[in-house]
Amino acid sequence: MIVWPELDMVVVIMAGGNPGQIATMVRQAVKSDKALPANAEAAARLNESTEQAKKSPKPGAVSAMPELAASISGVVYDFPVNPSRIDSLSVTFSKGGEARLDIQYYGRPLSFPIGLDGVYRIGSDGPFHMPAGASGKWVGDNELLLDVNFIANINHYTLDIRFDKDQIEVTANEASGLIRNGRLLGKRRS
Fold first, then answer.
1. Whether residue 161 has pLDDT greater than 80
2. Residue 83 confidence (pLDDT) above 70
3. Which residues make beta-bridge pairs with 171?
4. How many other C-beta atoms lie within 10 A of the C-beta of residue 39?
5. I need a surface site. Which of 12, 23, 73, 131 has the fewest CB within 10 A?
6. Which residues pair with 163 in a beta bridge?
């Protein structure tokens, strides 16, 4: 986000990169010598939307845990080098609709909660110690769908994980295009 009080302007950039590179171009594009006229209706809609955004989403039903969950809880699966940057993955299940995700990401261990009720659980141990969160749900007896969001960073993953004995197969998608429909095969750590 770039704020120019002297221009009564706030510019929000919704992609990665260096906002300083874009700032020069945006500043040059601003030609007006006065602010836009007040728009009470638009300001009211903005305030209403802001209030709605502050509210936490309502949790949904937690999908039933399959028998498999107990046998794979806390097991670490290692991946060969791959475009996702995920080196290993482990999910630990607890009672009450929550779980914990531990991953090795770019060689660094990260750990944060997973909401299994459709609501993100946020932890502070994402990349660069910034907030990260996850939600997930069982979509089959051996298939877990995770939504992993490095909220303060650019990466946002959807991981469709299929467990099979001592290995997992993950279909990985990342919102910025880092990996699309990537197939990762993970082996259970001995």
1. yes
2. yes
3. 160, 183
4. 10
5. 12
6. 168
Output the six-digit token pair for 170. Answer: 């993950």
Reported for 118-123, long-range contacts at CB under 8 A and 24+ positions apart, including other chains, are 118/57, 118/59, 118/60, 119/56, 119/57, 119/58, 119/59, 119/60, 120/147, 120/149, 122/151
Which has more confidence, 26 or 106?
A: 106
Residue with tokens 């095969």: 185
Residue environment code for 77-112, b if the CB has 16+ CB neighbours within 10 A, otherwise e: bebeebebbbbbbbbbbeeebbbbbbbbbeeeebeb
User: What pTM was estimated for this model as a whole?
Assistant: 0.76
- Total residue length of the chain: 190
Compute the average pLDDT of residues 42-49.
91
Look at 142 and 125; give whichever has higher pLDDT. 142
- Structure-token match 């660094």, residue found: 108
